[in-house]
Amino acid sequence: EYISAWQVCARHKSSNQPPQGLLQPLPVPHRPWSHIALDFVTGLPLSKGFTVILTIVDRFSKACHLVPPKSLPSSTETANLLIKHLFRLHGLPSEILSDHGPQFVARVWTDFAKHLGAKVSLTSGFHPQTNGQVERMNQELEAMLRCICSSNPAGWSAQLPWVEYAHNSHTSSSTGQSPFEVSLGYQPPLFPSDSASSTSVPQFLRRARRTWNQTRAALQRTAERNRRIADRHRRPAPTYTPGQLVWLSSRDIKVHGSCRKFSPRYLGPFPIAAVLSPVSVRLTLPPSMKVHPV
Questions:
Q1: Whether the Cβ atoms of residue 194 and residue 157 lie closer than 8 Å to each other
Q2: Is there a single domain that holds both residue 150 and residue 265?
Q3: Most confident of 87-91, 121-125, 248-252
Q4: Which parts of the sequence belong to the Integrase catalytic domain (predicted)?
Q5: Angle at 154 between CA 74 and CA 44, to 5 degrees
Q6: Would you give the DSSP letter of residue 135?
Q7: 22: how many CB neighbours lie within 10 A of its CB?
Q8: Model-level pTM?
């Protein structure tokens, strides 16, 4: 007890315990394009004036739209891209998930979402897994572009529509159906046949509703399976209260003035300003720390 209470030991000793906090899956949406996730792919070679890809993922169907801006857009430019490439096709979302990029924490962006009636959800600091769907989409996107454009890296922008089509045609392991099937109710063929069968409106609506119900059930099963697997290697988080002093891991924080090998493993302790969920809190940090407090 004496050692654990001594701040020097608490600050410098590495923990050999499993990470605290059980997996908190995001709620499963009820329909396509009501909950979207956003991210940017940067550092791409110049291709017809484009250097960035805005990745938009529907958390329900796993469908994506890949939009190439000329450069990393501002909050206003990002909002205009969503209006042009998303809202006119799928309507307004009820939730927008993103990281803490400057586009998504600016007042312009929060006001934009507020006028849409959409909730802005941000990932926790140093925890991109919260936005895991779009992170995986970006990895898949980069892998496909590497394969297609290995001999002509500057031609990636011309291949982007086909990469999007390929992803939306591919069966998702989470839903057991392609994003096209979930969001549209059918699988568009790459080369339409001459004898396309027509479907009456009632039949189409019944099939779409059945597909959505099956998709939601599959997503819930996948989320539960992922939670069980993740929780095998984690332990429940303690119950936090506002005002409680806690230590902040320095794993992703640059500590100035000391060798990384001998730098403290934890910083603080800092008081909890607010408890946001069972596994996330907002800390009261000194102004000198340029770190997001959540």
A1: no
A2: no
A3: 87-91
A4: 28-187
A5: 35
A6: H
A7: 14
A8: 0.63
